[in-house]
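Technical appendix A lists one of the benchmark inputs used to test multi-chain prediction within the project. The record comprises two sequence entries:
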Amino acid sequence: GAVVSQHPSRVICKSGTSVKIECRSLDFQATTMFWYRQFPKQSLMLMATSNEGSKATYEQGVEKDKFLINHASLTLSTLTVTSAHPEDSSFYICSAKIRGLNTEAFFGQGTRLTVV
Amino acid sequence: GDSVTQMEGPVTLSEEAFLTINCTYTATGYPSLFWYVQYPGEGLQLLLKATKADDKGSNKGFEATYRKETTSFHLEKGSVQVSDSAVYFCALSDADSSYKLIFGSGTRLLVRP
């Protein structure tokens, strides 16, 4: 099956710094990528949808200036958590869809962010 | 809007027991339905899917049938193994939600030897 690689798998950063998380589709072109946040023992909350070459669409309540998403190519999307605070500590997961309307989404391995 | 409701966990079973995890959905259109599995510390993996009514998705001994009349997609396995311990998410995707995946709350399964 298609592979989505997310990097880093774990990151610890100091409060006030920014962290970038990368999501790559390794063997297919992903026209759409999704970014999710998962709190401990809870479901995935969709943060934003990014389409290659255009601005990301953010879900209600998600600060677009805090969670910067860039989808500059068909194989790479990045999520930057700016001026991170301890409450941003969470598990972030990306997923990517192959070109087409209702195709399967493939998930990255997730990134555990801890802000200290 | 579209939504997915799953039975709350955790579900604790002995090895070789029968598993059912209930999932019901609400959608205005004709969604595709999915079960994803998340092992500790990992991302999600697609377990199985069904794209239309009466379809049965199956994989690794797990099955789920798309029941439009009851708006359900219950996950079943006849004999669970310790290695099946994970969190299972039911999800849907359809045109009305711009093909975004909408997840249920997840059900943690713990299988004891």
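The radius of gyration of chain B is 13 Å. Chain B has a mean pLDDT of 92. Comparable benchmark entries are summarised in Table A2.
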